[in-house]
Amino acid sequence: MINQLQADLYVQRHSTAMTVSVLVACAAAALYTFLQYRLASGGLDPASASGVQGVSDILIISLLGPLLIGLAIARPFETKSVHAALLAAGRGPVVASKAMTASLAVILVSLPYGLAALVGRATGASFEPALPTTFALLTADSVELDAGGVVHLVAVSVVTGLLYAAKLAVCIPLAFVLKRPIVVMATGFVWSFVADLLVSTVSDTAPGEAIAGLTPFSADRMPLPDSSTGDLLTTTAVSVVFIAAMGALAWLLFRRADVK
Q: Which keywords belong to this entry (predicted)?
């Protein structure tokens, strides 16, 4: 298991797709922060906010996240390198390793938005959230940024990245079934928006709201600038459990599947 995880992490570190995705996320986060500054200073009309949303974290991560999950899990099936991994480690360790690697990749492409929020807050400038997402609210927070504030901002950013990974974790079993990175990307992108609509509909009833609260799709799981340590730990626990559940589902689907 450890050897397989090290191998998968090595592949990700030297992956062109991973490098390009991080660079794209960095550029989008910087532009998103700048445009929010322009909105706050009056340099952009409020009607332009819809255009700003095109480089928001929710859109960029919903695109890059499923792509990276598909590449981490499904690409080895295309290159046939999965056969060597299965012979060396077995199906359980391979599924667990690739689920963790894929989740870490999603977290990594979300962190540039946290870094952009930190830099923006450090400048002391005013920002106007184009969308009420965690990173936008962190950037626009007016609380003075001291050492404790930096630690809290970093913690919220990491937990938000983990939450994104959990929301996209449904792509993990899909990747083992579909075995096509582009198909996984398209399906995951659609799912990232459909899931929120489904949860909001289910949450209209008390039982549905209780069930939704146990998933990363609940509005209560969204980290905020003023989230307490307990809230962050709860979101972390829910996200980790959901990712583990999707990994277990992937193993159940893959354990008897033919590998060509």
A: Membrane, Transmembrane, Transmembrane helix
Torsion of CA 181, 21, 161, 157, to 10 degrees: 180
If pLDDT is split at 50, 70 and 90, which confidence band does 146 have?
A: confident
Residue type, 43: G
- For 19, the token pair is 């490098």
SS3 call for 51: helix
Q: Which residues, in sequence order, are CB contacts of 119 under 8 Å at separation 6+? A: 33
The CA R_g of the chain, rounded to the nearest whole Å, is 19
Name the residue among 155, 130, 150 with its Cα closest to residue 140: 130
Q: Whose structure tokens read 């870094």?
A: 115
Interval 64-98: pLDDT, tens: 999 999 999 988 887 777 767 776 767 888 899 99
Question: Where do we find the tokens 């996240």?
Answer: 65
- The whole-number pLDDT of residue 258 equals 65
Task: Identify whether the C-beta of residue 174 lies closer than 8 Å to the C-beta of residue 112.
Answer: no
Integer angstrom CA distances of residue 168 from 17, 36, 217, 235, 257: 18, 26, 10, 15, 23
Inform me whether the pLDDT recorded for 235 exceeds 90.
yes
Verdict on whether the full-model pTM lies above 0.70: yes
Place of tokens 């298991």: 1
pLDDT reading at 111 higher than 70? yes
Alpha carbons 223 and 230: distance in angstroms, whole number: 11
